[in-house]
Amino acid sequence: MAEPVTIFTLLATHPNTKAMKSGEVSSPVAKFNFADVKVSNTEFKPLVRQNRYDLAELAIVTYLQAREYGLPYILLPATVVGRNQHHTIFYNAERGALTPADLNGKRVGVRAYTQTTGAWVRGFLTEDYGIDIKRIRWVTFEDPHIAQYHDPAIAERAPQGKVIKQMLMDGELDAAILGDVKEEGTLKHLFHDHEAAGRAWANTHGGVPINHLMVIRKSIAEERPDVVREVYRVLKESRATAGSMYESGELDPLRFGIARIQKSLATIIGYGLEQQLIKERVTPEEIFAPAARILGAAA
Question: 174 to each of 138, 169, 200, how far by Cα in Å?
């Protein structure tokens, strides 16, 4: 048997990763040293700026950006976080009714312009509602994960100390991308029937939007392709233990395999180009080529 390799791993505890993190699903050659991190996105900057981890979950927009600057990792066709995104944007009904089609000329808050959730939402608004994102002021609160990237002119930084939700409630923003929060009081979903909208979108766009996929260090892929295959197997088997929690087919948010992910990847690449998040038009086949060579039929 080949010598085991210890892999420093960034991976939050999700229902689909719990078996892997507990050791219920394991490998004789890939030994995982999990970083003590509750929320993985707090470590995305050290990952892409310092290459801190051997294996990591990473937001897809951050990966696409980092790839353009030579990030020494390959992308695996393994989704560990995916979700419909229509429920993540809100408005304050106390200040009047608002629909997605009303956003031109408005101010919309988002944690960071480069946030993957924000990229998906801007894509929906452009593609399905005729919104021109260049006519919106995107108010941000954090720097990009990628040090070399600079937000476009349509983004501006909120004043120091301001909080996105409070700015929305105070009328300083017309809408805001808040993520997985619930309606309360006058805080309302911008997409009123967001569940139906999300399902319809997924069924016509190759699946629920992908968010975090796994990346592995290129040097490991080059020197120990057997380890990459084992990593992928463990991730896939761990995900299978949570199968009954999720829908199947196009509505499965945690799709594995190049064929099941590539349409979503192509969509977010297109959105990224339109939104000035990336400069290079690249295909899913090009991005997944290193993984495909190693995983073969398993991919």
Answer: 11, 9, 26
Structural domain boundaries enclosing 57: 5-82+208-298
| 180 and 97 housed in the same domain | yes
Q: Model pTM? A: 0.96
Looking at the structure, do residues 194 and 228 belong to the same domain, yes or no?
A: no
Residues 78 and 158 in one domain: no
Q: At 9, which helix (H) or strand (E)?
A: strand 5-10
β-strand partners of 184: 187
* Strand intervals (E) in 112-243: 137-140, 155-157, 175-177, 187-189, 210-217
At residue 1 the predicted structure's pLDDT band, cuts being 50, 70 and 90, is: low
Number of domains comprising the chain: 2
Q: Which of 204, 234, 269 is the last residue of a domain?
A: 204
As a whole number, mean pLDDT of residues 244-270 equals 92
Torsions phi, psi for 244 (to 5 deg): -70, -15
In this structure, the answer to whether residues 249 and 191 fall within a common structural domain is: no
Are residues 175 and 218 located together in one domain of the fold? no
Asked if residue 194 and residue 106 are part of one domain, the reply reads yes
The 3-state DSSP class for residue 108 equals: strand
Q: What is the pLDDT of residues 98-107, one digit of tens each?
A: 999 999 999 9
Q: In Å, how far are 48, 60, 207, 284, 286 from 266, measured between CA atoms?
A: 22, 11, 12, 6, 11
Averaged pLDDT of the chain: 96
- The three-state secondary structure class of 86 is helix
* pLDDT value of residue 258: 97
Which tens digits make up the pLDDT trace of 144-155?
A: 999 999 999 999
